[in-house]
Design brief:
The protein is elongated. The longest helix is centred in the N-terminal third of the chain and has 27 residues, at 2-28. Helix content is 52%, strand content 0%. 0% of the residues are buried. With 52 residues, it is an all-alpha fold. It has a domain at 2-29.
Length: 52
């Protein structure tokens, strides 16, 4: 019973540590700047073939 309790306690510590590291990474992350799709202001010209 002592071995199972030790394994369970160490699993709790490992899970808590992983959760704390992930939460810390999410809270301290700085996102890169976002460029909008229409910010370039370039027009795409598509030629149209006419039948006739």
């Amino acid at each position: 019973m002592k071995f199972e309790s030790l394994i369970l306690a160490s699993l709790f510590v490992v899970c808590f540590t992983v959760c704390a590291l992930v939460m810390g990474a999410m809270l301290t992350a700085t996102p890169s700047s976002v460029q909008l799709a229409g910010a370039n202001k370039t027009a795409v010209v598509v030629p149209v073939a006419r039948a006739g």
